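Q&A FORM
Asked by: J.P.
Topic: structure of Tll0287-like domain-containing protein

PROVIDED:
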Amino acid sequence: MQTLGRTLQQTMKQEGPVAAIKVCSAVAPSIAGELSRQNGWRITRVGTRVRNPMLGMPDAWEQQVLTQFQARAAAGESFKEMSHAEIVAEPNGRYFRFMKAIGTQARCLTCHGPVGQIPAPVHAILKQQYPFDAATGYRQGDLRGAVSIKYRFERM
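REPLIED BY: S.T.
REPLY: Here is the structure written out as tokens.
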């Protein structure tokens, strides 16, 4: 996540938000895929509202944890340290599951903020690349999603 954040910030600063969209659409899945291949863990980003339904839809466990994160945030807990880990039994094995919350920061609003506040060129490329985009309308401080890790350590 730190690698993605640095790459995203650097691209935003040097090339602007339209180029930064390409970082999220191409670089983020590449980083997650590489880490998954190196470690044998499934590493993904899931959202409370998804930009790409093929990649960011939370499964039932992830949705439950996102709901818990919302409640924890409403009680005043910061997203910075918010995480959840659990051993989960599924039909094909036991898994270590972990999620780390992603809060919406000011810099996220260029692409994820209220639709009327997203710059026209950014909105146009988002509509082109993500025709089913629902990952807008966030405000600074909202829960946007989480990094999710899943690792099977015992087969059933």
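FOLLOW-UP: The domain at 2-155 is CATH 3.30.450 (Beta-Lactamase).
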